[in-house]
Amino acid sequence: MKKLRTIIYLITIIATLYYVWWKFVPAVDGAYSFGNGKISWNLIITNGVLKTINLENRITGEKLEPVFGSEDFVLRVGPTNSIGYITAKDANGKDFFPVIIREGLIVKSSRCLAKWFIRGRNKNTLVLEHPASKCKIFLDFIVEDDKPWIKRKLSLQAFYGNVLAVDKTEHLIWNLQTEFKNGGRGQPVFLNNSWFAALDHPASSNYFKEGKLILKQFPGYRFEREKLPLQTIVIGSCSNGFAKQSFWKYINNFRRAPRSVSLYNTWCDMRGDKLTSENIYATAEKIKNKLSVHDTKLDCFVVDDCWQNKKSIWKEDFRKIPEGLPEMFQVIKSKGYKSGLWLPFTGVGLDIKWGEKEG
User: Could you tell me the CA-to-CA distances from 109 to 51, 129, 172, 199, 281 in Å, in that order?
Assistant: First the structure.
C-alpha cells in the first residue's frame, strides 16, 4: 500500500510538472493561430514583436488583412501622480480642459516585446512587456466551440513597485481595404457585410474612418500588480451579406429575456430641499398602497439629485438623510423595491472649487 501511494504521488508530481511545462512557455518567434472551424485569428511574432497577419472567415474563405501601419493596440500609460488638466483645442478651435496622464507614454503593440505564451483549451494568452512604461500587457484570445466569433480581452499589470494609470485605449487600429457600414458609440462595425467588429461594451467607440478600423475606450483606471481587465474585442464572421444577422446571433447568445421594469425617480417631484428621507419614505409608502389596489408593484425606487453633500466626494447630506444611505436603502427595500441612486461620475452636483482646494 505504501509503495502504491508513493507511485501515485510521483505520478501526480510528474503530471503537474508536465501541465506547467505545457501551459507556460516562452513566446518565441513564429506563427500563432487561435480559432475554430468558423473563424481564426492568425498572428506572428518576429524579433519578439507581435502583429496580426489576418483573420480568416472559414465559412467563406475570406481574409481580413491589416496592412502596413496597423497596430493591435495603442495605449496611453503613465504614473498616477501626473494625472491632471491640460489645455487643448476642440474641433471648433475652442479651448477645453481634459484630464489626462500628463506624463503618459504611448504604448504601441509594435513597440512591445512578447514574453510568454499561456496555452489553454478555449483561452490562449500572450504576455507582452513595455519596459519604458513599466507595464505588462495580457492578450486573452477566447474562442467558443463552433461559434463564428472570437474575442480578445486586453489586461494591464504594472511592474513590481509601480502605480500606473491608463486614460486612453485603442484596442486596435487596423488599416483595411474593405467596405464598411454602421459604427458609433456601442455599435458594431460591419465589414464587407461578412464581418462584424466591436468592443463588447455599450459605452465603447467603434468606427471606420479614413481606411482605419478603430475600437476605442477611455478607461481612466489605475493599476498595480493586480491585473486590470479592460474592454473586450469581439470579431465575428458569417456568410456574405449576413453581418447584421450574425451580430444579432452573438447578442442573443447571452442576452436576457426582455421584461418590463417599472421605476419611480425622485426628480419627478422631489428637488432641492424637498428631497429628504422623510419625504422619500412617505412617497414610497404612498406608491405601494396605490399600486396594491391594482395587484401590482413598483420594481425600482431611484433617489435622484440633491441627496449629496456638495463639499464631499459623494457623501450623503446628513441634514436631509440623517440616518445615512445604508439605512435609507434598507427602508426602501422593506417596501418591496430595489434601490437606485443618481451618481454622475463627471462630478456634476458637487462643489468643484471645494474639490480643487482639497486636491
Answer: 7, 10, 9, 18, 54
Spatial contact of 33 and 14, defined as CB atoms under 8 Å apart: no
pLDDT tens column, 98-129: 778 888 999 999 999 999 999 988 999 999 99
Provide the sign of the torsion angle of the four alpha carbons 48, 51, 56, 57, taken in this order: positive
- Give residue for cell 423595491: 337
What cell does 47 get? 524579433
Q: Amino acid identity, residue 209? A: K
Identify the CATH assignment for 24-252 out of 2.60.40, 2.70.98, 3.30.1490, 1.20.120.
2.70.98
**Predicted TM-score of the model (pTM):** 0.72
Give exposure, 191-228, as e/b (b: 16+ Cβ within 10 Å): bbbbbbbbbbeeebbbbbeeebbbbbbebeebbbeeeb
What's the pLDDT tens digit per position in 30-51?
999 999 999 999 999 999 999 9
Measure the CA–CA gap between 33 and 164, rounded to whole angstroms: 31
pLDDT higher than threshold 60 for residue 21: no
What residue segments make up the domains of the chain, in order of their start? 24-252, 263-358
3-state SS track over 117-153: EECCCCEEEEEEEECCCCEEEEEEEEECCCCCEEEEE
